Amino acid sequence: QQPIDKMMTMMASSSCSSSFFFVLLLIAAATTTTTTLLPTSSLTAAQSINNLTAALDLVSDACAIDVAAKERNFDNVKNIFERQGGLKQTASAFPADSAAATAGAVARAIDGHGPTYMKPTLCSSMPYRSEMIRKGVSGILLNLATDLLASEGDDVDTDVIAMLLGSAAVGGEPKSCTPVAKMDRRASEFGASEQHIGHGRDHINEQLAAMREAVRNNDAASASNARNALLEELNIAPVQGALKYAALIDPSAGSITYGELDKERAEAIAYIYPVMNQIGKCQAALGSARVIEEALSCSPENVMPVGVNEEDIVTTSRSVTDDGIYSRVLNAIEKAYSCLAVMSGDAAEFKEHVGIYRGERAGLTPEGFQD
């Protein structure tokens, strides 16, 4: 409870704008920033999490859901997820192609259904549901933060962004349910050089501080650059997560249990879900979103049969094509690198920042997964 007490003390000392003043700031932002603004629905929704208390409540919900989903207490998960003013309601007010879409995937997993692009009865096992929910709520926090960064421009409350991402400078390490915790884990597993890893609490806070300083100096260009650099950084961990778990379920990784297969398949799609809209709209990657969905989907040939144990070994092929799951996911995502590189548009640089997964299992060495 001690970290929460510290958060509440910090929030008590924070000042909040009135609704009228907040709207005026948003109108002003539309004329002072070069960042592309999101639809009016997103601007309106932003007012529901325009202070630290609201942001902390959402993070607390995500962490409680993470624990309940790990225990497979889906009734408890549903109650927390659907509470008034909670994650589902807040995300649903944002554009349907970002936070709301991720929240929709989580809601389907809670109810025992797979993603909308496959039959509802597939991808409905306990391991799949649990991990789709756990990684999905972190994805919702990520989407809420990135939507606010893009929609509010120079007037975004950087303390709210830090809270949603898990980089708020309050006691202890970032909570495991937050995007920053996921970034730290994934960055440590990929072979990028230290200067290109660029994730974690300190780096996120440096970018937010740069935004605040630029706004204080009325430097709209620098504020926009810092914001876009942060948005680009936030796109890296979703890609790393998808690549890691696609590698783990690739046929070349060897035998796998039904439980591991469904768990890791859910983690792969849940990680990439928050950026699937960007991939889907990327002109350089037309069709890539569908390729990723199909590669990571459940099929009648490899879905966990009723009555089997999670520890039983999958005996059927995990890939329906010769090129393998990892290769299909990697090639599809790489086509979108120029779009995910929000700041630079440099696909080669973004690829370097992502790095290569350093797997510990047989067959998961960098040489085994060179593209």
SSE diagram, text form:
Elements: H1 2-12, H2 19-32, H3 40-46, H4 52-70, H5 74-81, H6 87-92, H7 99-110, H8 126-152, H9 158-165, H10 179-189, H11 194-197, H12 201-216, H13 220-234, H14 236-248, H15 258-272, H16 276-281, H17 288-295, H18 325-334, H19 337-340, H20 347-354
Helix pairs in contact: 4-5, 4-8, 4-9, 7-8, 8-9, 8-15, 9-12, 10-14, 12-13, 14-15, 14-18, 17-18
In terms of per-residue confidence, which ranges show pLDDT below 50 for 5 or more consecutive residues?
Answer: 1-43, 360-371
In whole angstroms, the N-to-C terminal distance is 46 Å
Q: Strand portion, in percent?
A: under 5%
* Number of E strands: 0
- Taking Cα atoms only, what radius of gyration do you get, to the nearest Å? 20 Å
Which structural class do you get from the secondary structure elements? mainly alpha
Query: What's the pLDDT, averaged over the residues?
Result: 79
Share of helix among residues?
A: 55-70%
Task: Give the overall shape, derived from the CA principal axes.
Answer: globular
H and E order: HHHHHHHHHHHHHHHHHHHH
The number of helical elements comes to 20
The largest sheet is: none
